[in-house]
Amino acid sequence: MTYALIRSHDGKAEERINFADLYNTWSREFALSQTFQVSFTMRYLPGFEYVFNLAKIQAEVLFNGQVYKIKEVEPITNEQGVVTNKITAVNALIDKLRNLRLPEASKDSNSSAGDSSNDNQQPGTVIQRAQADQTYSLDSVMHQFFDNNDQGIRYELHGQFINQPAQAQGSCFDYLTSNLAAFGGYWIPDGNTLKIYDLPSLTHKTGETFRYLYHSPNVDIQSSSTDMVNSVQYQAGKMEKTVTTGDDNTPVTKNAQGVIDYARSWLGVPYILGGRTTAGTDCAGFVHFVYAKFGIDIGWTTWSQESSFHEVSTPQTGDVGFYGAHGNPYHICLFLDANTIIFEPQPGEVCKEEPASWYYPSWVARNDQMAAIVSGGGNADDSGGSSSTTEFYQLSGTYKNQDSIDKYDEHRGEVQTLDTLYDQNAVNNWLENHLQVEPATTMTWTHKDNFNYELGDSIHTIDPELNVDTDMVIFSYTVNDFNPVDATINFNNTGKAMKDINAILLKSITNINTDVGNTSFNGATGGRHENHFNNMVLLTKEEQEKIKKFVDS
After folding, report:
1. d(Cα 187, Cα 196) in Å, to the nearest integer?
2. For a designed S-S bond to 532, which of 228, 386, 408, 464 qualifies (C-beta 3.0 to 4.6 A apart)?
3. Pick from 18, 147, 37: nearest CA to 93
4. What pairing do the DSSP bridges indicate for beta strands 204-211 and 457-463?
5. Is residue 27 within 8 Å of 478, Cβ to Cβ?
6. 341, 333 in Cβ contact below 8 A?
7. Weakest-pLDDT range from 193-197, 317-321, 393-397
8. Three-class SS of residue 114?
9. E-assigned strands of 401-450?
């Protein structure tokens, strides 16, 4: 006979719960990676006073080899004046998972982009894949939580799991709640063991078939497009661009005169379009070298340099002059003072100094870092060379699932950043598999037979009136184990099964019976039929009664 016990918090006493209370009110609710609890109502009746008084917060409910900690006790007086307690108890392993705690992960203080000086670097530009964020296997993370733990618990992994960048930190329970789905895992408590499965390992084919009306008086399919995403911007393939300037070993003074002296050291250097060394450079390259000498990275082209400056009316040492309209400059010079400019002119010529009036720029601009150095309050780089690293993405664009858009309209989501994917097909595959392009759909059966199923059981479901004929996996259920009728079963809402269901919902359903007196019965028998309408017959009430009497006998 099935029974449940209450054990006191100190473990010194335990007593059976009144079977009548269990029969009438017991509910066991299991949901993968979420809920593992039991609830019931106890009455204060003669003969059951002791067990009633044992049911306190953090006392234990023992059922079917599992331990549940009482978390809620709600006293109620019913209409007959009987004192009752509504009890809710959660699997005891969950408390222990909360007690497995690690310190918060330390943050890396290194910046991914910036300036540095290195006398050993050679001038030039290097473009390479950015260093990928460190990833961790699920097994290594679980080891950090579980090794030498003081809770007396262990874990098991079943299946294959993808590595993730989420470090082990905080409580194990919170970590699982936030990150396990990204690993592709589902967890189930079993005594003092946490069991984690991937979907193939979780799924257990039972070979059984559920048929609407035969096994269930009610099948409920609910679908929502609230969280759908079928259109996103993406950036993928993180890259690093490192630009190293030449080291001429020339010391600089951190003031206006230092800027003037270093700029004049370039006089006579030939103009070379696109040049990146002290042997020759172009107009923008010359200004870049001067600024880089003082630790300021402004880029290598006039159009990229513009964003490092703001327009001013009167020039001073270290300011620049742009030639051409805002947003489209074609030439640049450097002011030595308000009346003198220095610049690389054009191919075939060399760096030279001229009065500003000789070739006055279209507009004058200032960099605040250089202005601080010129005024004597800034910091300059005495090393002679500099290196700056910037990050960008190799692939970018918009992903749209047109089939989903045609069916359900466009639902735009946040930008997807995929640092480690450098192939367009891989990007497309990732987006297809991770975006919710179908409505979130749940299928719930009210099961009227004895319930002997577990999470992960795969059952073939058939509802001819809705054209449902597909394998489904149990992801959650609610059952009264002491009165096992009308259990509620929820099937998975991901993968091919739900795509089949969503396809069904889009069809025009024209054959649903509304005449209760003429119910359609499937006259065929057997395990599985692909077309459930071929062998259907229409029965009268009298014929249905005869069949019912025969089945009942």
Report:
1. 4
2. 464
3. 37
4. parallel
5. yes
6. yes
7. 393-397
8. strand
9. 416-418, 440-447
- Alpha-carbon distance of 393 to 7, in angstroms, equals 59
Would you state the structure tokens that stand for residue 501, as one six-digit string?
A: 């269901």
Distance of CA 532 to the CA centre of its chain: 41
User: Residue 368: pLDDT above 80?
Assistant: yes
Question: Interior CA angle at 328 toward 324 and 334, to 5°?
Answer: 55
CB of 32 closer than 8 Å to CB of 14? no
Per-residue pLDDT reduced to its tens digit, 130-187: 776 788 999 999 999 999 999 999 999 999 998 888 889 999 999 999 999 888 899 9
> Which tokens sit at 227?
């969280």
Name the amino acid, one letter, at 386.
S
Could you give the angle at which helices 92-99 and 172-183 cross, rounded to 10 degrees?
100
What's the token pair of residue 7?
């054990």
Task: Dump pLDDT digits (tens) for 480-523.
Answer: 999 877 788 888 744 444 555 455 445 433 333 333 333 333 33
248: confidence class by pLDDT, cuts 50, 70, 90: low
Cα 189 to chain center, whole Å?
A: 24
* CA–CA separation, 308 and 294 (whole Å): 14
Sign of the Cα torsion 128, 129, 133, 137 reads: negative
Q: Which residues in 64-184 belong to E strands, given as ranges?
A: 66-77, 83-91, 101-102, 114-116, 124-129, 154-158, 170-171
| Whole-number CA gyration radius for the chain | 37
Q: For the chain, report the end-to-end CA distance as a whole number of angstroms.
A: 26
Residue 4, helix vs strand vs coil? coil
The CA distance from 299 to 322, in Å, is: 15
Do 242 and 122 form a contact (C-beta atoms < 8 A)? no
State the DSSP code for 279. Answer: T
Q: Which residue has the higher pLDDT, 158 or 221?
A: 158
The label of the residue with tokens 């409505």 reads 439
CA–CA dist 512, 520 (Å, integer): 9
Q: Which of 2, 130, 133 is CA-nearest to residue 65?
A: 2
Tell me which residue of 186, 179, 170, 73 sits closest to 135, measured CA to CA: 179
Spatial contact of 196 and 180, defined as CB atoms under 8 Å apart: yes
Strands 416-418 and 231-244, sheet pairing: parallel
Close Cβ partners of 480 (under 8 Å, ≥ 6 residues apart):
23, 26, 27, 28, 487
Which helix or strand (DSSP H or E) is residue 342 part of? strand 340-343
Between the alpha carbon of residue 159 and those of residues 33, 198, 202, 365, 455, the distances in Å are: 16, 5, 8, 61, 16
Q: What are phi and psi of 526, to 5 degrees?
A: 130, 180
Which tokens hold the place of 180? Answer: 């396990």
